[in-house]
Amino acid sequence: MVALIPATRAPQADSSHQLATDVRKALLTEDGLDIASLVVRRIPNGVCLEGVIHVHGDDVDVCRAIRRLDGVGEILNHLVVCWNCPEPGPQVTEDDIF
Length: 98
Fold this sequence. Notes:
Layout: H1 11-28, E1 33-43, E2 46-55, H2 62-67, E3 74-83
Parallel strand pairs: 2-3
Antiparallel strand pairs: 1-2
């Protein structure tokens, strides 16, 4: 008979998940910033950010809020920033084209 042992998460995975959650919360506190997609990866002494954000205004600093977090000394910013983008409209399909 084989005993099944539930898989446990490694402590580093838990801390990485918590850091990603903290980064997302920090970004959401910035006025005029909306997250379309975000991937946070831990790097030595910091984080790597990938994804798409929408910025509405001129006084948004993505790194400012994240630098306040414990364990974030360096930020590798690979975000695509859409400045003052219009909200996405309805999707046009081939059926809609005459």
